[in-house]
Specification:
InterPro entries: Glutathione-S-Trfase_C-like, Glutathione-S-Trfase_C_sf, Glutathione_S-Trfase, Glutathione_S-Trfase_N, Thioredoxin-like_sf. Pfam families: GST_C_2 (PF13410), GST_N_3 (PF13417). This is Glutathione S-transferase. It comes from Brevundimonas denitrificans. The protein is mostly helical. It has two domains: 37 residues, Glutaredoxin (3-Layer(aba) Sandwich); 123 residues, Glutathione S-transferase Yfyf (Class Pi), Chain A, domain 2 (Up-down Bundle), CATH 1.20.1050. 56% of the residues lie in helices and 4% in strands. It contains seven helices and two strands. The protein has a two-stranded antiparallel sheet. α3 packs antiparallel against α4 and α3 packs parallel to α5. The structure holds glutathione.
Length: 179
């Protein structure tokens, strides 16, 4: 943990050490921007400014209003007895449900991916958060959100990531989504 903290100030995932440049990158948005630049730029962050703004917006909304509450609810489950916070859990579940509603509305234009017709930062950022946060607040009656998540789950890169993560999946103190 001390080694991890030396790289990532709050010991959060993702953290990427680029051994070619010697840079250490954290915060998923920054890691993805770095990878986009390595790939020639203009793909994960679209070159067209309007499309880039939409990708950044969806990324920020997911990280703040879905990832944020998830990353508060989960650590509360590890608190010692007597320090539970059901009121805080309910407030955060409401924020998370609001994020699902916002995404469902955003997807109403029929887009294939999180920010349009190409796979971007929005999808990279959302894939893990959707996968785990739906264990806390199910997607429910939000068919477009469910379909987007299914498309993400079918991406070969994400299939590989989930295979790598499988041995650790049960460490999350919430059962896999059943709906
Ligand atoms: N805003 C950060 C969120 C990072 C974050 O909270 N990561 C979680 C996983 S989704 C984590 O590392 N949790 C483990 C912990 O806090 O011990 C980002 O986008 O990278």
């Amino acid at each position: 943990m001390a080694q991890f903290r030396a790289l990532s100030p709050f010991a959060k995932m993702p953290t990427l050490v680029d051994t070619t440049t010697g840079e250490t990158l954290y915060e998923s948005t920054i890691v993805i921007e770095h990878l986009d630049r390595l790939a020639g730029a203009g793909r994960l962050i679209p070159a067209e400014p309007g499309a880039a703004l939409e990708a950044r917006l969806v990324d920020r909304m997911v990280d703040t209003y879905a990832g944020g509450p998830m990353n508060r609810i989960i650590p509360r489950k590890f608190r010692p007895a007597g320090h539970e916070d059901p009121f805080g859990d309910a407030q955060d579940a409401e924020i998370l449900a609001g994020a699902w509603d916002w995404l469902e509305a955003r997807l109403a234009d029929g887009r294939t991916w999180g920010a349009g017709e190409t796979f971007t930062l929005a999808d990279c950022g959302a894939a893990p958060i959707l996968t785990y946060a739906r264990r806390l607040v199910p997607f429910g009656d939000r068919p477009r959100l469910r379909a987007w998540h299914q498309r993400l789950m079918a991406r070969p890169s994400f299939v590989r990531a989930l295979e790598d993560a499988a041995p650790f999946g049960d460490l999350m103190p919430a059962p896999p989504a059943e709906d």
